[in-house]
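Entry:
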Amino acid sequence: MGWLDRFGLRKAQRRGRKARYDRLAEDSDVKALIEFAKSRTGVEFYVEPETFATGTTAVAVAHDGEWIRRRVGSPEVIRRVAHRLALPAYDVNIVGYPKRMREWTARNKRRLSLED
């Protein structure tokens, strides 16, 4: 059993709930969220529900709005990760995305368009 199994990733995948066009969540997906959270300050997790095309995902948002999105298999997986890291995890359908995330994305789009 891998060290990430303590978060329940394998158990979540055994439930047989998988979106049709998506791949399964992997250890590297959860690791990327953990590394992002440990290397930045003010990180919050936002859990996105499963859709027809993708499985459950989580977005980690830092204090400056920088963010990453990764597959997590089920909401329980990211909630366990958040609990162990002592970070908040929110349901995006209830609270929405933070304004700083949209601002960071807009700033980076402008910067990239100026570089072209």
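The CA atoms of residues 41 and 109 lie 23 Å apart.
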